[in-house]
Design brief:
Length: about 270
């Protein structure tokens, strides 16, 4: 992925009217209903955008939306990409680079994940405070894009304390349980074994998923403040592990979605 491709994607979207969005939102698994609250002005399928990957996951929509939410210009990825779909990390994160060039000042990300911390129950939310990257690589490997950021980005605060503090306060005000913890992405697409869940707990994971961290790394590289929330869709107790069906995960995500939407709308209103 080179600068030329990123610029071509950006210029295409500017030409379509994606002008000066303030906030970018990446909607994860089963979390698409936020679009019902956005006054959508433009929507473009990913396959129409030069160099964009195409979401191959059947429950991810695959559209880039532009419109207004709480008086702010929003760009929203309705459907995201995953490493297990066969994309490299530069492809996965090209949309984040493009959204930054379009003018975005904040990145908000959601995902579905499994609770390795058994104090977290399915249907609740976790604010990601930190992560451990167990994906086999990251989007900064290769030639550094100096226009965006330094060769060796600091990762002492991968998720914005400014945004996280706001989300904690909004959750308290709305009486929403919002855990805080460490997210670990695995390559997928299979879920984890009992031994892997034990390992993840030992190394300090609270929630495990298959996404988000590449986007967060690229956002940090570009000095784009990022916040991410996991919807906890299953409980990963290795001593009482029952088979999980993706339809069950989607059903739990749908039930938890209302609180996530309330949090995101509350945050957008304050930015």
């Amino acid at each position: 992925m080179d600068m030329k491709e990123i610029l071509e994607s950006t210029e295409f979207l500017k030409g379509k009217g994606y002008l000066s969005p303030e906030i970018a939102i990446i909607l994860g698994t089963g979390l698409g209903k936020l679009v019902n609250y956005i006054d959508v002005e433009i929507e473009t399928s990913y396959e129409q955008i030069p160099h964009f990957p195409v979401s191959s996951v059947e429950f991810h929509s695959g559209k880039l939306l532009y419109g207004t939410l709480e008086g702010k210009k929003i760009i929203a990825m309705h459907g995201r990409f995953h490493y297990y779909e066969g994309y490299d990390f530069q492809q996965l994160t090209l949309p984040v680079r493009v959204m930054k060039l379009l003018g975005v000042k904040y990145l908000l990300v959601s995902n579905a994940g499994g609770a390795v911390n058994l104090n977290f129950k399915k249907g609740s939310l976790m604010l990601i405070d930190d992560h451990i990257n167990l994906l086999p690589g990251n989007p900064l490997i290769g030639k550094n894009l100096d226009k965006f950021g330094p060769r060796y980005p600091d990762m002492s605060e991968p998720y914005s304390k400014f945004l996280n503090d706001k989300l904690v306060n909004i959750a308290a005000r709305l009486n929403i349980t919002l855990h805080k913890g460490v997210y670990v992405p695995m390559p997928g697409p299979m879920l984890e074994t009992r031994a892997e869940y034990r390992y993840l707990r030992i190394i300090g994971a609270d929630v495990v998923g298959m996404s988000t961290v590449p986007e967060a790394i690229v956002a940090k590289h570009m000095n784009l403040p990022c916040a991410a929330i996991s919807v906890i869709t299953d409980e990963c107790d290795p001593d009482h592990l029952a088979p999980v069906q993706i339809k069950d995960i989607l059903a739990v995500a749908a039930r938890a979605e209302e609180n996530l939407i309330r949090l995101i709308i509350g945050l957008v209103a304050e930015l």
